[in-house]
Amino acid sequence: MNYQQKLATAQNPNTPTKTLELLATNEAWDVRRFVAKNPNTPTKTLKQLAGDEHVYVRCGVAKNPNTSTNTLELLASDEYSYVRSGVAENPNTPLEILEQLATDKDWYVRRCVAENPTTPTKTLELLASDEDRYVRSWVAKNPNRTEIIERLVLMTDYKLSTNAA
Fold it and tell me: How far apart are CA 141 and CA 49, in angstroms?
């Protein structure tokens, strides 16, 4: 298989798991990234790819809905915020990990928690007072928001705008 064929095969959701397992060891990081993102990639292969040296491969694992809880937990403390944001976006990320990521130093990670439709109300309440307006705007768009959370977002926006004046 040439490089383009490997890329296409790694992206194809109908690719057999054995083939994906072989492609997971490919020297080209972008081939491994597409294997990591593939919904047909086995959990054990995703676990292996979670230790990949390339940040985009690890992010692909973080976003994959088949990634195990243990692997998501490992990736939630990755040094790169891009990987942590992938964990925050994953609809299967356990609530405890979403709570942890809601206090991440990087605003984009917190925004991804605010956007995740599985984020619990308690965590959205915390994010409703976030210093970053983009985080607060995603809280307001979350399907789990409540009227109280909407008021918190508005109050925080008002306080920040009057303090800036």
Answer: 33
CA–CA distances in Å: residue 28 to residues 15, 56, 57? 18, 12, 10
Q: pTM for the whole thing?
A: 0.88
Arch. (CATH architecture) of 3-93: Alpha Horseshoe (1.25)
Q: Where are the domains of the chain?
A: 3-93
Residue 145 is predicted with a pLDDT of: 78
What the block records as the tokens of 96 is: 């405890």
The structure tokens listed for 158 are 């008002």
Longest dimension (CA), the chain: 62
Q: Where are the alpha helices (DSSP H) in 67-116?
A: 69-75, 81-89, 95-101, 107-115
- CB of 81 closer than 8 Å to CB of 56: no
pLDDT for 108-130, tens place per residue? Answer: 999 999 999 999 999 999 999 99
Query: For residues 71 and 40, what is the distance between their CA atoms, to the nearest angstrom?
Result: 17
Is residue 30 exposed (0-12), middle (13-18) or buried (19+ Cβ within 10 Å)? middle
Nearest to 115 by CA among 130, 133, 95, 136: 136
